[in-house]
Amino acid sequence: MAKPIEEWTDEERQLVEWLADMNEDDALPLANRMLLEDKVSPMHVLDLCRAAMDIVGKRFEEGEYFLPELVLAGEMLDTIGAVAKPLIKAAGGGAAQTHGKVLIGTVHGDLHDIGKNIVTFMLDINGFEVKDIGVDVPVQTFIEEIKSFQPTVVGLSGFLTLAFDSMKETIAAFDAAGIRPGFKVMIGGGQIDETVRAYTGADAFGVNAVEAVGLCRNWMGVAA
Amino acid sequence: MSHGNDVTMLGAHAQTAQAKAAYDARYERILACARLEQPDRMPVAMQSFFWPATHGGITYQELMYDYEKAKKVCFDVVAEFEPDGVYPMLMGTNMGRSLELLEFKQLQWPGHGVGPMQPFQYLDREYMKAEEYDDFLFDPTGFYLHTYLPRVAGAFEGFDKLPDFPGLHYFRLVNGIRPFALPEVRASFEKIVAAAEETNRFFANHIDWVNQINAAGFPLINGGNSIAPYDFIADYFRGATGMMKDLFRHKEKLKQVLDKAAVFIARMTIANARAANHPIVFIPIHWAPDAFMSPKQFEEFWWPSFRRLMLTLIEADLIPMPLWEADCTKRLEIIKDIPPGKCIYWFERTDMVKAFEVLGDRVALRGNLSPSLLTTGQPHEVDAAVKRLVDEVWRKGGKLILDGAFGIPDETPTPNVRAMFDAARKYAG
């Protein structure tokens, strides 16, 4: 059970604030000290990181933060996670609960990954379990991954105009394999709009990571 | 060389007086727009990468490797659709052989990493580490020779053994040149000479194509191209995510590098534009979109060095033609800060009507039929989209050069391109 916000110490509040304000130089040493010297529970430190990422996500949705902040936030989270996660494993801690599963990948023929990575990060900090299967993903790989991961939402990413046809083929293959009723398909990337959504047969499209989070929340019945 | 009164030879190609007049009229249409003057009709531009292959029935790989086939399909699209300005198409695609010989590492292209019918794709990586900013700042040429070029092209790999050139003086010069005799340095020079010879063949073919289209009455819409300093560092040195982290971790050094880059990018651009004998400079813009950074970051990191570059080009009598990729609506008020009648702003996803409202008295506009419409839509829908731009921008006084949002997408069906050119004539002279 997470420690309620009103019971946080000044130091804990400070960590959340520094992370949310992109103050990497102060936040990382503080997190390290809490984990390694003060022996604060690593699960709790990760909870504090999640609280900070909630603020980052909100500031992004409100148009105060942009991609550079998401990238730096992700990097800070990874750095702290690299210290905290072995400690959790050593203590035999369990995985956190999530809203549901999202499988994401860039369709075949397209090697672009920046947009996909940002969407993955935003879904992750918003409480979804995301499996990212990379770029230039063959149709058959998508189908195999869906069968084993059992996602509620499948995200297809693509930056090039050739991705229109790759997405259409991929979605048609989901239909042909008889697996389509099990999940929703969202598409996104540089040129994606309603015309492309209709062309590919996707359930929805998003123009940015906030819209991707919104779509997943709606489909999984999660309150914003 | 003149043959009689009415034929001029452009290389191997004869230009008739009639074709010369058509060439002049088309060229003037584009330049009139840039000066914010009214041309006789709305010009239509043609830019594409692999679409001439789609249209001409050859593979993308052939467009990259086969000089004659590439020249033919790129001439045929110009002759068939009669654009007012043409992108130097071969320069954007036909260098497969040179890339092979350079052992170029930043790209995967058809026949080399991706399939014969897939476009080339840039590999976003960290080609300069954050700790190398100081090396770059102190001596960009040394950094290029010893570190950057060997990293991005295998042919240059021996260059990491070259001496430090500052320091080669007096007797040190004699002793200091020994690395030139190393087998790996010799091998690099041999590979580079072979690549340069191939590039000469590629370039001669490009020049022959330019002469061919000019002789037929069609001008290029730009000669050289350029790049925004921020995009130069983000795309080709630090990589997308490295650059975004630098906005927090290395902001002062980043600004110094951008200032320095703006100077040598301007020098290179002016020299290339003069060699191409064409005032318009195409500048694809990657990192300006609304979604990528905050207005404050844009004004602090992106815009100042680019504005300075544009002003330097304008000062040299060139016409910057940035292609503002994605949606830059929130940037319009900022990028308006340039002298009137000196630039062509090409917009991809920015609403052209909004761009006209903000920038109509400042710059000519280019674009912007949507790629999804061009590739998956019907000709009547393309016609309607052109009519909207004509009604909302051209007829209201906007100096619009019609084009796709980033030219004609690779997969575009020919009837949609036909519809674009026909609609321009039908609605705007």
Describe this protein's structure.
The complex is a heterodimer of chains A (224) and B (429). Chain A has 224 residues and is α/β, with parallel strands linked by helices. Helix content of chain A is 56%, strand content 10%. Chain A contains 9 helices and 5 strands; from the N terminus they run ααααβαβαβαβαβα. Chain A has helices spanning 10-20, 24-36, 42-61, 67-91, 114-125, 139-149, 162-176, 194-200, 209-220; strands at 101-106, 129-132, 153-157, 184-188, 204-206. Chain A has a 5-stranded parallel β-sheet with strand order 2-1-3-4-5, sandwiched between helices. Chain A is elongated and about 55 Å long. Chain B is globular. In chain B, β1 and β2 form a beta hairpin. The longest helix of chain B has 33 residues, at 183-215. Chain B contains 19 helices and 13 strands.
Order of helices and strands of chain A: HHHHEHEHEHEHEH
For the record, give the distance between the C-alpha atoms at the N and C termini of chain A, rounded to a whole number. Answer: 22 Å
The global form of chain B is globular
Q: What percent of residues of chain A adopt helix (DSSP H or I)?
A: 55-70%
Give average pLDDT of chain B, whole number: 96
Question: How would you summarize this macromolecular structure in one to three sentences?
Answer:
The complex is a heterodimer of chains A (224) and B (429). With 224 residues, chain A is of the alpha/beta class.
How does the SSE layout of this entry go?
The complex is a heterodimer of chains A (224) and B (429).
Chain A: H1 10-20, H2 24-36, H3 42-61, H4 67-91, E1 101-106, H5 114-125, E2 129-132, H6 139-149, E3 153-157, H7 162-176, E4 184-188, H8 194-200, E5 204-206, H9 209-220
Parallel strand pairs in A: 1-2, 1-3, 3-4, 4-5
Chain B: E1 2-3, E2 7-10, E3 13-16, H1 17-34, E4 45-46, H2 51-56, H3 60-65, H4 67-81, E5 85-86, H5 89-93, H6 96-102, E6 107-110, E7 113-114, E8 121-122, H7 133-138, H8 140-152, H9 170-176, H10 183-215, H11 229-238, H12 240-249, H13 251-276, E9 280-285, H14 295-315, E10 319-324, H15 332-335, E11 344-347, H16 352-359, E12 364-369, H17 371-376, H18 379-394, E13 400-404, H19 414-428
Helix pairs in contact in B: 4-10, 6-10, 11-12, 11-13, 13-14, 18-19
